[in-house]
Amino acid sequence: MYIERKSHADFIGSVGGGHANLEAEFERMRILISAGAYCCMIVESSLDRIVEELESPIGMRSLAPSSVMGLVASWPMRFGVPILFAGNRRLAESLAFRVMEKCVERAVN
After folding, report:
1. pLDDT, tens digit, for every residue of 56-106?
2. Can you say whether residue 87 is alpha, beta or left, with left for phi > 0 and alpha for psi between -120 and 50 degrees?
3. Fewest CB within 10 angstroms: 1, 22, 53, 66, which?
4. How far apart are CA 56 and CA 92, in angstroms?
């Protein structure tokens, strides 16, 4: 099992920074999945908050909301790695724990 957690700012930076490192991380997770592991990315934000920030006049103009939406729509299909938006850090921690719990339950049964 492998869970990649991203803060709000880190997710935006990873998508907007040419995303070569992010793509390499997804490729590593794809390889783990092909070996039988479960992998996912948990973002400590919501998609609407990310898009609203990018659309705001003081937002990061070098990244278009459509680029984020395209990545969120296509990369789970391309790599087989779900991207889960948890809303905030506390919920992301809880979600990560639940994912781990379900993976252990699945392995035991």
Report:
1. 877 556 788 999 999 999 999 999 999 999 999 999 999 999 999 999 998
2. left
3. 66
4. 25
pLDDT of 33 > 70? The answer is yes
The SS3 call for residue 80 is coil
The reported pLDDT for the residue numbered 43 is 98
- DSSP letters, 28-79, are HHHHHHHTT--EEEEEES-HHHHHHHHHSTTS-TTS-HHHHHHHHHHHHHHH
Q: How far apart are CA 10 and CA 58, in angstroms?
A: 18
**Tokens at 34, concatenated:** 């092909």
Q: What letter represents residue 66's amino acid? A: S
Could you identify the residue written with the tokens 């995303």? 19
d(CA 109, CA 104): 9
**Closest CA relative to residue 44, chosen from 100, 2, 85, 99:** 85
pTM of the model: 0.91
